[in-house]
């Protein structure tokens, strides 16, 4: 599965792990991963450990998630990016919107 | 059989000779010990009958000399004696005799003894032939292993195992124990380490190690990711290893610049991340060994750790915890943890572990069956400084080329040309470490041409979450109507002094779109009105590339991408914000 979602034990954190290419083809699976979670989730972690490439539609999807999670008050962190992915996030100024680690 | 008879009494000798001849053997006669020894050398008899008491040299002395002369060969020696004193008879056997015959001779007993000793002689010969054969085979095997190891060393050279920040222990013949250890510097900074432990010993394990070494070094220098390398190793081992044979392994991928360590452990004992402040974190096996699962099921998913200079990571084969002392107790994984908990200031985990295991087993050679490797995280500058190697452009490969690839009609719906185009670009030596950027560039141009050019999808659709979904449904629907359309990529690459320049032209058969308006809107993207879900693609490309030109109606886009083979020591990326944005025609 290119998209894998996991809830923390207390149910408050949802971790979504994206494998391989993060592009439009993962759009539906990515949306399903967070839209079907219940409202007790307060924090989102996008784990990009296994993400090799990312394109602009993935950036759009990250923004969709951010809005779903409450927009400016959302707690979304993007973790474990490789250097290319990190550069693309930086170019798009996504550090201002997400906590990137 | 040739039978030597030594007897000083003529009559006794005559009787015995006649008896032996009648049994069908050839007889050679000697009258005393000296004659017997001389005749033994001359005729090399198969069995010797020897009187104990003879003039000049008695039977005891003759027996001793004959045994020395016979060397490894077994020549049964039977004493002839009229003695009945037990002590005397025992002396005959001590002198080297195998048995004795008491006079007067009994024909039946004589025949039985000669036959019995002949059987023993033949058995001895078979055994010594076999022993010689085993000895020769063993010598050949040792020689073969020596040559095999030389071949293996050429393939699996030490890579960068001798770097200052790597400590390791591996026995010189470890490949025949099934252990392998490779290390390579990553193009673009960083270190990759693979440790493997094949099931089994000897040649089968060593044979499996060869392709792993080839894959590791081949892919690492080309800049493939650790996960890609693991997948390829697994695929290969799956194909070549018989069921029941596999390779436990661990991969460490350290990026000193990002301060990131990626780990993968499939079947090795816990590895350890020992922080500069003393904290230790286990890196347990979380995957099946390599060569077990089919490529579809295999998971190369790596665990990511954030690390700082001074942190150390250590991995080991099971030979380490399984080292046992004289009482047969094993060192055990718990002891490994204890050693790491009790590190003295200034003591490295590697040296502490090696010292403890030697103390525990009490014999240094016990470490022959284990492999241990520790990697210390160092500052990026230090890593760059210790790697004084030629620039990547010195590597062989296509650097100056041009190609055009056009996708059209139904193929636009069925096939993405991106992996193929990326593959062509990645053949340029050194460019692979920029694969993420090159992919993004190609992907943005392609999706732009396909979605806005050929399919005429308005990006305004993506304004809402529902619209985002609708957009992709619409994309799928319109892909069935690609008749008469094409997307054409023209790629060219040229080497430059510091790396290379990739030019990409992407043209499509669409009607174009309002690109001027598009660029005007770009400035709004990150405005206070809130980020929009779309419209980021070309802007991203513009920031990564040196030039981005949009020609015609927006269906002819051209970009120039400069890349550097080795990053500057300060690691600063060239700032691309000054790139031109020209819309001509």
UniProtKB/TrEMBL annotation, chain A:
Residues 14-101 form the STAS domain. PROSITE patterns: STAS. It holds the Pfam family STAS_2. It comes from the Bacteria. InterPro entries: MlaB-like_STAS, STAS_dom, STAS_dom_sf. GO terms for molecular function: anti-sigma factor antagonist activity. PANTHER family: ANTI-SIGMA FACTOR ANTAGONIST TM_1081-RELATED-RELATED (PTHR33495), STAS DOMAIN-CONTAINING PROTEIN (PTHR33495:SF15). This is Anti-anti-sigma regulatory factor (Antagonist of anti-sigma factor). It comes from Marinobacter excellens HL-55.
């Amino acid at each position: 599965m290119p998209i894998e979602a996991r809830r923390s034990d207390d149910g408050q954190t949802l971790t979504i792990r994206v494998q391989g290419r993060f592009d439009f083809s993962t759009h539906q699976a990515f949306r399903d991963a967070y839209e079907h979670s219940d409202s007790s989730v307060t924090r989102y972690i996008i784990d990009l450990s296994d993400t090799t490439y990312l394109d602009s539609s993935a950036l759009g999807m990250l923004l969709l998630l951010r809005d779903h999670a409450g927009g400016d008050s959302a707690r979304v962190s993007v973790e474990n990016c490789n250097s290319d992915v990190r550069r693309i996030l930086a170019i798009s100024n996504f550090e201002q919107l997400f906590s990137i680690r | 059989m040739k039978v030597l008879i030594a007897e000083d009494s003529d009559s006794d000798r005559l009787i015995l000779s006649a008896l032996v001849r009648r049994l069908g053997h050839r007889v050679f006669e000697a009258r005393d010990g000296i004659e017997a020894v001389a005749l033994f050398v001359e005729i090399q008899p198969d069995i010797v009958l020897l009187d104990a008491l003879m003039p000049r040299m008695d039977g005891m002395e003759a027996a001793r000399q004959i045994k020395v002369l016979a060397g490894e060969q077994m020549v049964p020696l039977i004493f002839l004696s009229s003695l009945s004193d037990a002590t005397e008879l025992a002396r005959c056997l001590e002198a080297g005799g195998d048995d004795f015959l008491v006079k007067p001779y009994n024909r039946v007993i004589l025949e039985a003894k000669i036959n019995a000793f002949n059987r023993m002689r033949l058995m001895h010969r078979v055994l010594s032939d076999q022993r010689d054969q085993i000895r020769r085979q063993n010598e050949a095997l040792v020689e073969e292993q020596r040559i095999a190891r030389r071949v293996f060393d050429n393939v699996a050279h030490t890579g960068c195992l001798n770097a200052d920040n790597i400590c390791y222990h591996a026995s010189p013949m470890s490949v025949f124990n099934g252990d392998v250890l490779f290390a390579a510097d990553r193009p673009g900074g960083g270190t990759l380490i693979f440790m493997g432990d094949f099931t089994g010993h000897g040649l089968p394990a060593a044979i499996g190690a060869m392709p792993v070494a080839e894959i590791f070094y081949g892919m690492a220098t080309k800049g493939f990711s650790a996960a890609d390398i693991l997948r390829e190793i697994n695929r290969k081992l799956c194909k070549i290893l018989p069921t029941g044979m596999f390779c436990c392994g661990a991969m460490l991928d350290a990026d000193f610049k990002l301060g990131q360590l990626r780990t993968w452990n499939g079947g090795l004992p816990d590895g350890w991340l020992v922080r500069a402040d003393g904290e230790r974190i286990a890196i347990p096996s979380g995957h099946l060994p390599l060569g077990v699962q089919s490529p579809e099921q295999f998971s190369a998913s790596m665990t990511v750790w954030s690390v700082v200079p001074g942190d150390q990571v250590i991995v080991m084969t099971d030979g380490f915890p399984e080292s046992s002392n004289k009482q047969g107790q094993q060192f055990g994984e718990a002891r490994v943890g204890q050693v790491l908990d009790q590190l003295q200031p200034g003591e490295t985990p590697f040296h502490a572990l090696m010292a403890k295991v030697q103390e525990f087993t009490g014999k240094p050679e016990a470490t022959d069956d284990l492999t241990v490797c520790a990697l210390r995280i160092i500052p990026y500058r230090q890593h760059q400084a210790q790697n004084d190697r030629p620039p990547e452009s010195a590597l062989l490969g296509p650097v100056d080329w041009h190609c055009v690839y056009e996708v059209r009609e139904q193929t636009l719906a069925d096939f993405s040309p991106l992996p193929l185009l990326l593959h062509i670009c990645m053949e340029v030596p050194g460019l692979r470490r920029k694969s993420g950027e090159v992919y993004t560039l190609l992907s943005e141009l392609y999706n732009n041409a396909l979605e806005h050019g050929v399919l005429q999808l308005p990006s305004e659709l993506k304004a809402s979450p529902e619209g985002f979904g609708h957009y992709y449904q619409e994309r799928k629907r319109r892909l069935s109507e690609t008749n008469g359309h094409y997307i054409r990529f023209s790629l060219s690459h040229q080497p430059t002094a510091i790396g290379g320049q990739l030019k990409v032209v992407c043209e499509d058969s669409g009607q174009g779109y309002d690109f001027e308006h598009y660029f005007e809107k770009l400035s709004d993207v990150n405005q206070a009105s809130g980020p929009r879900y779309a419209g980021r693609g070309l802007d991203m490309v513009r920031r990564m590339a040196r030039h981005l030109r949009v020609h015609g109606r927006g269906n002819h886009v051209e970009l120039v991408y400069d890349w550097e083979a080795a990053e500057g020591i300060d690691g600063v990326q060239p700032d691309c914000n000054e790139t031109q944005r020209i819309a001509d025609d």
